[in-house]
Amino acid sequence: MNISLNNVGRRFNKEWIFKNIDYTFKHGEKYAVLGPNGSGKSTLLSILLGSLTPSEGEIGYSNLEVIRVEDVYQYISFAAPYLDLVEEFTLQETIDFHFQFKAYAHGLNAAEVLGLLGLKKSQDKALKHFSSGMKQRTKLALACCSNTPLLFLDEPTSNLDTQGVDWYLQLIEKFAPNKMVIVGSNQEHEYGFCKNLLSISDYK
Ligand SMILES: Nc1ncnc2c1ncn2[C@@H]1O[C@H](COP(=O)(O)OP(=O)(O)OP(=O)(O)O)[C@@H](O)[C@H]1O
């Protein structure tokens, strides 16, 4: 799938966050959306995800086959620190629930995902008792281990320690080689694998 932005701009009230973005995100490529705090990275990711509409311009999705609106979620995975998990679910329930809606990446099952997470001891613990780093790991594992052609990651290493950052990079290497990955970030260690850099400051 390719995603094309044609003269896309977004404003909140009278404030333009960005304008005139003409850009094509191509199937299987890796992109980093860069910019300082408050520049509009998350806003652009929301537009690409389809959860926010542009204030001007058009966004187009091209795919070899037609995707029905109700099936779009099967094509996209998304992880972000501000994305909520169901706090009452245990880790095991979270994994089982998530993969009722999305297919596992090739060769994976619930036990494998749990193993990959390195949180086996916490499989029966409710997420409300997880640390912020454990929650972030869970979100990244769910997103990366889903068999979707598009992977959106906003600030993927927030709340992760050095070991966690290495773990995230291994996850990307293993599960994202054929996916389009779009990372919203201002930290190089989390988007070093992205060949294409898009700076929001160029569209102010
Ligand atoms: N729903 C909203 N209503 C009004 N203003 C908003 C809304 N969402 C975002 N903004 C504003 O849009 C601007 C861009 O916010 P955004 O969260 O996209 O930035 P960001 O680059 O992702 O920031 P950070 O690096 O801090 O996560 C900010 O000035 C923010 O206050």
Automatic annotation (TrEMBL):
It holds the Pfam family ABC_tran. Keywords: ATP-binding, Nucleotide-binding, Transport. PROSITE patterns: ABC_TRANSPORTER_2 (PS50893). InterPro entries: AAA+_ATPase, ABC_transporter-like_ATP-bd, ABC_Transporter_VariousFunc, P-loop_NTPase. This is ABC transporter ATP-binding protein. Residues 3-203 form the ABC transporter domain. One of its GO terms (molecular function) is ATP binding.
